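sorry for the late reply, my laptop died twice this morning and i had to redo everyting from scratch. anyway the thing you sent over, i finally got around to it. pasting the sequence first so we're on the same page, its 233 residues, then the predicted structure underneath. double check i copied it right bc i was rushing
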Amino acid sequence: MDQTAPTLGIRSVLFDTETTGLDPLNGDRVIEIAALELINDLPTGRHFHTLIDPKRDVPAEASRIHGFTNADLEGKPTFEQIAADLLAFLGDGKLVAHNAPFDFGFLNMEFGRIGLPRLGPERMVDTLALAKVRFPGMPNSLDALCRRYEIDLSARTTHNALLDCRLLADVYVELTGGRQRGLSLATDDRRGPLVVYTHTGPRTPRLIVPSEAELAAHAAFVGRIKEAIWRLG
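ok and here's the structure:
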């Protein structure tokens, strides 16, 4: 885990949990948590991830979903042992999750057990709610959204929290503005080609340099517009 925070931009955290079941009020516990740092809603690569010993059994039906058994969690730190580091990583900004009320409910129950402050609802950003607004009446699970945005799901054989965070980070970029969120200008010895990003995997900058013919066509088109603001140079 990397908890070093940059000093520029608006920081938030995207996170996911895996649990022993669906209801913290009935004694279900967190067994895995992963969190990714976002700056201006884009992932920086810094993350927090840990398995947690829930000090109770993991039902078989839960194991079939996330793949973790009692043996996998035995000897791992308890929630109390990781709580301070987790809170430090979460910071005081927005917290992004898919079906966020579920994850908030579990974390707040865990924090309450050990007398620590709960996460405020004003910090919650629920990507499921965002997706329902954007795609009403359509499937909006993480898998469905990844398929809709052509995000590679081949590694997702179980609900691993860290992998789910990385997939959700790509989905979140699309839900909140798409690849153009990452556009910026770069300079070379011509006219400052545009930097764009690929839509799967790490967002690697790719320079787009217009040809002489494209530049001439652009100049001719703009020349027909009175007081055009798009003139190059």
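Residues 183-223 form one domain.
thats about all i looked at so far, will dig more tmrw
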